[in-house]
Amino acid sequence: MPTHRTDLLNIESQFSAEELQTRDRIAEFVDRRVRPHIAQWYDEAVLPLELLPEMAELGLFGMHLSGYGCAGRSAVEYGLAMQEMEAGDSGLRTVVSVQGSLAMSAIHKHGSQEQMQQWLPKMAAGEAIGCFALTEPSAGSDPSSMTTRARREGEEWVLNGQKRWIGLASEAQVAIVWAQVADEQAGKDVVRGFVVPTDTAGFTATPITGKLSMRASLQCDIELTDVRLPAEAILPENPGLRGPFSCLSEARYGIAWGAMGAARDAIESALDYSAERMQFGKPLAGYQLTQKKLVDMTLELNKGQLIALNLGRAKDAGTLENHMISVGKLNNCRAAIEICREARTVLGGNGITGDHPPLRHANNLESVRTYEGTDEVHTLILGHQLTGEPAFR
């Protein structure tokens, strides 16, 4: 029998023993360390930094990367881990994504051997935390319009600009900062990445407060004021937007799995509540309308899980195409947020409290649905794939 009641198709049977072992190891961590406290962390808007060393010990940081102390696990194993982390909370899954899929991937994909040797072992061990500074106050879905600039002065780079919604920035030891650089040969600006130690003069990260979503996480504004870096701070490989976009693809892949973890947790909460809550002389689970809600939610969950699994198998086989990731990000975030909202209705008024997870998951998914590409961006990526016509402008 499948581990989860929601697995109507016995999707679990398609995983290897090693994949299930990875899933169960992360699920045990979430059950033991996250679920008992997440309502309080969310209410108090606290990222539990004490969990980060434990997450590193589990091999979650750079889990899908090879070498340099990284775990080198498969894409499917990484996806299963992200599903379990987000079943706990989207904010904690985001920690893994920012550290591994964004900051570490940027160095792993685009860095020099020296940069990789300097940072990746420490980041995999949780001895150094990283952030990925791409989004700006006026440049979200259109990163080509970023205004952060890097100019060369002798043997140094000088960075100036602003970044916004940068996960972990105020706790990070290293930031991957993307900036416009004048390319004299091409006669235009090109986006380049820089490895920026956060103790460099002129680098300031300020946590964003007053969030109504992703409260048990940390996002920041960054100010870059004449930040001076050595010449070798630039990421040498893959200039242009394909540099950060390749990292975003890694993060989007993890989101396709993670969103289904939040959805599954919401459904299981609704199942438990409906079995115990008595109305008009019998449990809510005994009413046709309740069963319809539970069935409709679980069908969408299983569809999304199959999409995520298909992406993972393709990624491991080397056949994954970028538009396929957009299918997973768009469909699974959209489905997950509707599932969590519907699950809340099963819980009635009690569902708006922190005693139950569906509304917390739904609120978090408002952010997950937005970052790493909005619905609109992924719709246009898929529209371009279908028609051959780019319609982004």
TrEMBL record:
Assigned keywords, A-Z: FAD, Flavoprotein, Oxidoreductase, Transit peptide
Cofactors named for this entry: FAD
Name this polypeptide is given: glutaryl-CoA dehydrogenase (ETF)
Keyword 4Fe-4S: no
Matches recorded under Gene3D superfamilies: Acyl-CoA dehydrogenase/oxidase, N-terminal domain, Butyryl-CoA Dehydrogenase, subunit A, domain 2, Butyryl-CoA Dehydrogenase, subunit A, domain 3
Family: Belongs to the acyl-CoA dehydrogenase family.
Pathway(s) where this gene product acts: Amino-acid metabolism; tryptophan metabolism; Amino-acid metabolism; lysine degradation
Catalysis: reaction(s): glutaryl-CoA + oxidized [electron-transfer flavoprotein] + 2 H(+) = (2E)-butenoyl-CoA + reduced [electron-transfer flavoprotein] + CO2
Residue stretches making up the Acyl-CoA oxidase/dehydrogenase middle domain: 131-227
Pfam families: Acyl-CoA_dh_1 (PF00441), Acyl-CoA_dh_M (PF02770), Acyl-CoA_dh_N (PF02771)
Every Acyl-CoA dehydrogenase/oxidase N-terminal domain range: 17-127
Catalytic activity, EC: 1.3.8.6
SUPFAM superfamilies noted in UniProt: Acyl-CoA dehydrogenase C-terminal domain-like (SSF47203), Acyl-CoA dehydrogenase NM domain-like (SSF56645)
InterPro entries membership: Acyl-CoA_DH_CS (IPR006089), Acyl-CoA_Oxase/DH_mid-dom (IPR006091), Acyl-CoA_Oxase/DH_mid-dom_sf (IPR046373), AcylCo_DH-like_C (IPR036250), AcylCo_DH/oxidase_C (IPR009075), AcylCoA_DH/ox_N (IPR013786), AcylCoA_DH/ox_N_sf (IPR037069), AcylCoA_DH/oxidase_NM_dom_sf (IPR009100)
Acyl-CoA dehydrogenase/oxidase C-terminal domain segment(s): 242-386
